[in-house]
Every structure is written in C-alpha cells, then in structure tokens.
Amino acid sequence: MVRNIALITGVTGQDGSYLADLLLSKGYEVHGVVRRSSSFNTRRLEHLYHDRHAGGRPLTLHYGDVADGNCLARIIREVRPTEIYNLAAQSHVRVSFDQPTYTADVTALGTLRLLEALRDVQDACGDTIRFYQASSSEMYGKVVEIPQKETTPFHPRSPYGVAKTYAHWITVNYRESYGLHASCGILFNHESPRRGETFVTRKITRAATRIKLGLQDTLFLGNIDAKRDWGFAGDYVEAMWLMLQQEEPDDYVVSTDETHTVREFCEKTFAQVGLDCDDFIKIDPRYFRPAEVDLLLGDSTKARTKLGWKPRVSFNQLVEMMVESDLVLAEQEKLLRGEGHAMVLVND
Ligand code: NAP
Ligand code: GDD
C-alpha cells in the first residue's frame, strides 16, 4: 500500500492551513510542526479540528521549532514522512529589517537544519523523503529582468530576501550534492481571507470593511506605488503538491503573470464597499522600507507546462473574496462592541 504521509512546518500559517486542507482531502496522513505560544496560534486550523470530530481525517500537531535541529530530527523519526513541506519562516519583509539576525536564523538556517535532519533520518531508516522549499519572488528584489522566471538572477533587497536566497540555494545544493528529491517553489505574493493582518492586502481589506461599519476612520500605508503579482493561496498550495509528485525534483515560478499596484488593490477594495479610498488613506513614512522591491511580475510558463498548473482565482475575485470575509468579521466585531466587549485593533 502507498504511504502518503506529509509533514508541514509552518502549518499554522496561511499556506500551511490551505496545504493541510488539500493534503487531507487527498487522503494523506498530515502532521504539522507548531511553535509553543503563550496564546493559541492554531486559529487557521480550527475548522480541521471540528472536521475531525465530524469523522474527518486527523491532523496531528507536534511542538517544534526550526531553530531547534534536534527536535526536527526527532519529529521526522517519529512521523517517517514521505513528503516534507518547509513553510516555516519569519515571513514579514518589513519586520526582517528590525530582526535581521532572527530572520536569518529561522528563515535561512532553519531550512538547513531541516535538510540535515531529513538527511540523517533518510540515511538511518532508508526512507525516501521528498522535500518542498518555500522560496520567494522577494529573492528577485531589484529585478534585472521583467517578467521574472526561473533563470532570472536574484538581487534580494531585504534581510528576509537574503535569508530566502540562502534557503533556496542550500536546497539546490543538497539536491545536487546528496541526490535529494528537493524542489523549490518560487512563489509570487499570494493572499486569502486567512492572510496575516499585517501584509498589505489584508490590512487594506480589514481597514475598508471596518471603515464601512464605522469601526475605523483612517488607513495608514507606506509605498502604494509598489507593484505585485498577487494570486490566491488556495491555488498556490496545489502547485507545491504537484512539484513533489514529479519524477524529478526541480524549481518552478508560481505566479498569475499579472501585476497591480498597491493603490489599485485599495481602489478595488474600497469600491467594493461603496467608498473612495482617497478619502481614507494617509501615507505614513513608518511603513516605508529601507530598500523596496518596486515591481514583481512572474512568468509561470514552466509550472503551467510541466506541472499542468494554472491559477483559478483572478485578481478581482481575490479582492471580492477577501472583502466578503472581512465584512463578516467587521460585523461580528461591531456586534461584540455593542455588547461591551473589547476587541484588539489591527493596523500594522
Ligand atoms: P505565514 O502566514 O507568516 O506563516 C509562517 C509560518 O511559519 C507560521 O506557521 C509560523 O508559526 C511559522 N514559523 C515562524 N517561525 C517559526 C519557527 N521558528 N519554527 C517553526 N515555525 C515557525 O506565511 P505564509 O504566507 O503562509 O507563507 C508560507 C511560506 O511561504 C513562508 O516560508 C513564506 O516566507 C513563504 N512565501 C510566502 C509568500 C506569500 O505571498 N504568502 C510568497 C512566497 C513565499 P506561527 O503561526 O506560530 O507564527
Ligand atoms: N505590509 C505592508 N504594510 N506593506 C505595505 C504597506 C503597509 O502599510 N504600505 C505599502 N506597502 C507595500 C510594501 O512596501 C510592499 O511593496 C507591498 O506593499 C507588499 O507588502 P507585503 O504585503 O508586506 O508583502 P511583500 O511583498 O513585502 O512580501 C510578501 O510577499 C513575498 C513574495 O514576494 C510576503 O508574503 C513574503 O513572505 C513573500 O515572500
């Protein structure tokens, strides 16, 4: 019988939760690494917990951290996965300028620790474990080519981008040195209703819906001229899985091949709730970065041809989906406020 056992680091994040949904729907036994936290950090997995009680397949969580190589080896030995998806990272670009050393330790060295643990267990147990590395379009940084494809040279512009570039190359190096089935997905920005609230798209959809319901009056932003190739996270996790189903490991760009400014994202979002964004946006220098990535635009021809992958959700549909979901949250918040409960305001 074929064993399909997946281990996901970063399972509590946006992509980890969508990937867990996908793999469970495909009949995988799914395990996730979760960091100990003083408050619950499994909010994005709650629906799976409820599914489990309704007879769905189980998701097993293991306490661990990519800063701790010993625990990674122990988890891999216990789980004996057939596929590992390394999604764990300090993933916020702006924060990486404030915490460069920590970002390097988790995002860059964390990948090396995981690869070393995989290699040790693979050698000791004779298993073959396929490996996915979450590489990023942020590695292209100050782009030397438009659009960006697998062969475009990297010029990272942030400590996060530099850390991801290390993680990318160490994965390629381990593939070439030790024959690992290790693939890197160079994913362009992808968003969803589960996106962290401090990334720009979610910050905008949260703000517009809260403004609409009278819960907030201003949206403070940084560089609204930046251009990004934004897709839907649910589509992108499918590409991750497809990479590990290939006979040969390889690296792939995953993108929509369309680019939009942050301003356009604001205009569409506010228009959807019947407002004009110019009435509410204030530019705050706090949100500018010491070095910016001005333009990202992918060329995903290779993923489309070799993996048979393509994005299903358009830019407009993505905005609509996020606004609809945040409207519900804003309505709940308003209701709670009416009942005298305090809520945490998110505007970072
Ligand atoms: P995310 O929502 O920020 O999730 C990051 C995950 O990593 C969370 O589960 C987080 O745990 C976990 N994590 C952080 N530090 C860790 C540590 N020391 N040990 C173990 N786990 C740790 O990010 P995402 O948007 O899902 O992205 C997933 C991956 O793809 C990341 O590596 C990101 O850099 C990369 N990526 C993302 C995009 C994008 O546009 N979303 C594009 C390209 C690449 P907590 O929940 O406890 O914080
Ligand atoms: N977060 C944020 N907050 N960004 C802002 C703001 C603001 O108030 N105002 C303008 N921006 C601009 C940023 O300067 C950047 O140019 C753009 O909006 C997108 O910012 P983020 O949503 O934070 O994403 P990112 O592109 O820096 O990084 C994301 O995408 C990468 C892939 O290219 C993250 O998900 C990374 O983890 C990922 O690797």
Structure description:
It is a single chain. By secondary structure, the chain is α/β, with parallel strands linked by helices. It has a domain of 242 residues: NAD(P)-binding Rossmann-like Domain (Rossmann fold), CATH 3.40.50.720. The chain is built from 11 helices and 13 strands. Strands 3-2-1-4-5-6-11 form a 7-stranded parallel beta sheet, sandwiched between helices. The chain has a two-stranded parallel ribbon with strand order 7-10. The protein has a two-stranded parallel ribbon with strand order 8-13. Strand 5, helix 6 and strand 6 form a beta-alpha-beta unit. The chain is globular. The chain starts with a strand and ends in a 10-residue tail after the last helix. The site of NADP nicotinamide-adenine-dinucleotide phosphate has 26 residues, from helix 1 and strand 5.
Topology overview:
Blueprint: E1 5-9, H1 14-25, E2 29-34, H2 46-53, E3 59-63, H3 69-79, E4 83-86, H4 93-98, H5 100-125, E5 130-136, H6 159-178, E6 182-187, E7 190-191, H7 200-212, E8 219-221, E9 227-228, E10 231-232, H8 233-244, E11 251-254, E12 260-261, H9 262-272, E13 281-283, H10 301-307, H11 315-338
Parallel strand pairs: 1-2, 1-4, 2-3, 4-5, 5-6, 6-11, 7-10, 8-13
Antiparallel strand pairs: 9-12
Helix pairs in contact: 1-8, 3-5, 5-6, 7-9, 7-11, 9-11
The structure holds NADP nicotinamide-adenine-dinucleotide phosphate and guanosine-5'-diphosphate-alpha-D-mannose.
NADP nicotinamide-adenine-dinucleotide phosphate binds next to helix 1 and strand 5.
